[in-house]
Amino acid sequence: MKAKTLYILLFFYCFTASSQSIIGKWESVNEETKKVESVIEIYEKSGKYFGKIIEIKDPKKKDALCKLCDGALKNKPILGLVIINGLEKRKNEWTGGTVLDPKNGKKYKCTISLEDKGIMKLRGYIGFSLFGRTAYWNRVNTK
C-alpha cells in the first residue's frame, strides 16, 4: 500500500513540476492586434534559460533582418535569433537575463513568471522593473 501511494505522489509531483516550467514553445502575441506574431522556443542550457524565434507567422516578415540590432546581431535574420538570454530560475520566476526586442533592436532586463496554466508573463525593463513593459505569451498546444 505504501509503495502504491508513493508512486501516485511521485506521478503528481512530476506532473506539476513539468507544468511549472517555461521550457517549450510559446506564442508571442501582438498587444494591439491580438494576433500571434511568432513562436519562441525556450530551452535550458547549463542551468540557464534561453529563447529563440523558431517561427514567424506573417509570410512577408519570414526573411526579415534585425536591422536595428547592434554588434554581431546587426542584419541577422530574425528567424532563428536568440532573443532571451541567460535567465536563471529563482523560486517561482526566471530572472537575471535579458530579452531582445527585434523591432527596435534594444535589449532589456527580463523576468518571466507563469501566470496560469499555459500563460507566461514576460516583463522587459530598463533599470527597475517598474519602468518596463509586460507581455503575455501562450504555450503552444503540442497535441
Automatic annotation (TrEMBL):
Residue ranges of coiled coil: none
Signal peptide (UniProt feature, chain positions): 1-19
Gene3D superfamilies registered for this protein in UniProt: 2.40.128.520
Top-rank taxon: Bacteria
Disulfide bond found in the keyword field: no
All copies of domain DUF2147, residue ranges: 24-139
Keyword Nucleotidyltransferase: no
Keywords: Signal
InterPro entries associated with the record: DUF2147 (IPR019223)
Pfam family, one: DUF2147
UniProt protein name: DUF2147 domain-containing protein
